[in-house]
Amino acid sequence: MELAGLIVRVFGGLAIFVYGMKLMGDGLHAVAGEKMRTILRMFSANRFVAIFSGAAVTAVVQSSSASTVMVIGFVNAGLLTLVQSIGIIFGANIGTTITAQLVAFDIQGIVMPALILGLVLSFFKGRKVNGWGMTVLGFGFLFLGMGMMGGELKELAKDDGFKSMFQLFECIPGPSGHIPVGSLFGAAAVGLLATVIIQSSSACTGIILALGASGLLNLHTAVALVVGSNIGTTITAQLAALTANRVAKQAALAHTLFNFCGAMFLFVSFVFVVDGEPAFFYLVQHFSAGGELPRQIANAHTLFNIITTIVLIPFIGPLAVLCEKVLPVREAKVKYRRLEPILLDTPDVALLQATGALRKMLGKAWRSVNCAFKLHDRTDTDNLELSESLDEIEREIDERQSDVASYLSRLMEKTINHEQAARIPMLLHCVNDAERIGDHALIIRDIFASLGDGEKPLSDEAREEFLKIHSKLVRQAQGVLSLLAGADDSVRRAVMTLRDEVMVMAALFEQNHLTRLREKRCSAESGIVYIELLGEFRKVSRHLANIAERNGAFRANAPATPGY
């Protein structure tokens, strides 16, 4: 019973450790979340910046699995290319070693003060202060759980039966300085399996550090377990990519191949012996300067990932080509998912994606309404052919409105700040305006249909006025689409000026037309139709102006990405 009690307390310590790691990651994300968008924009620079970005993001979220899943979402949304994603994945493997480096410190004396301070800060209402509170509180729980695990494992280490379990794949070098291959791969398999079950390489590494501190593991076995854990953590990205497009699946495969190749590279390096042991462990001990075993394990973890990254940087391109050959894109065009659910955990990026979806939706709505306005010219065969698809286009616009509204509703369920929360209703209003513009296409088509096939055409004067006001509306629509793509505020002012000009022209042309009716220079039937068309110009112009006015709340500063 005593043995069972010790094991339960070990798992209790593990639960507190994992909770602390999650709390710390959530807190750091709350504090640094606003920087995520900036980091994302750095991704496209070059492979070295991509590696740095991956390391930085992983250090914030405290999980290589979480950051790699985020990358899969970016690729699936068309925000990253395969080559860019590979660079970030390389960096994520370095960033995840930060947790082990932290845990390797023996700072149990500040655990309670950290818990007290973290709890006090968490009561503050300010988002960043509250975020720091979560971070400090998580930091305290991290070391509290580690201390509990370490203490109980030291007691378990006294049990010969329990200790013998860890000697099954013990990786102690033989007289020649070489580690038995069977033990090496056996320990790696245990680390892989444990990580697949726990779904966190950081948590698995924490357990390995605790086992090392308790005397149940030596450095050589611990490193083999860590290497296996590095391979096991790739399962999360593979699962995330199951429903993603082919390019995202290639990125997940690149993650697995990189970690596997890194493991094989390290194992091969064990052949080279210095002072009676593999050269890698000689290097670890040199960098650790006689530190305790947990510090040596943490340093080995970091060195392994840094060396692997340096060695494989020149092979990023070939690795991408290999992934493309193993998982070729079979479609003529890759379908990107602009409203990617994974991105909901990064609100700024999710809002950027929703803005991009709005732009695509508005572009389609404007195309349909512009087609309807041009139906006055019965000789434009291409436009007449497009007009036959207006009902189908309208259904697509309605579907997109529903998709964006649903996506933003799910975003509101996430932890977001006040500024992000204020942007959501603005976006929803704009989505509704874009949908209404699409509705007007069908109304305008029906208005022209009432003119018949040329029996009651517009007068020459009315047609000339129609073309003038239509030209203004075209420029206004182009301006709004530019705003949603990131144009500056001068374009917004120009759009509002064009709105005013459309309103003035509509009022003037209405008066002109009433004069023509009184003078019987046009028929009553076409007169009514022309007044209705002027009303449609006003309504579409107002909807465009509404979107332009609200644009400042969610300005899209990123370059346009592949279609939704």
Which regions have little confidence, pLDDT < 50, spanning 5+ residues? 556-564
Question: C-alpha Rg, in Å?
Answer: 31 Å
Q: Strand portion, in percent?
A: under 5%
Overall pLDDT metric: 84
The strands making up the biggest β-sheet line up spatially as 1-2
Number of DSSP strand runs: 2
- Which shape, going by the Cα principal axes? elongated
Order of helices and strands: HHHHHHHHHHHHHHEEHHHHHHHHHH
Measured between the Cα atoms of the first and last residue, the distance is 59 Å
SS content category: mainly alpha
Count of domain modules: 2
Describe the 3D structure.
- The chain is mainly α.
- Helices cover 75% and strands 1% of the residues.
- The chain is built from 24 helices and 2 strands.
- The protein has helices at residues 2-32, 36-42, 47-61, 64-76, 82-95, 97-103, 111-122, 127-156, 160-165, 181-198, 201-213, 219-232, 234-240, 246-269, 279-288, 293-312, 316-326, 347-373, 381-387, 390-412, 418-449, 460-484, 489-518, 524-550, and strands spanning 273-274, 277-278.
- Mean pLDDT is 84; it is low at 556-564.
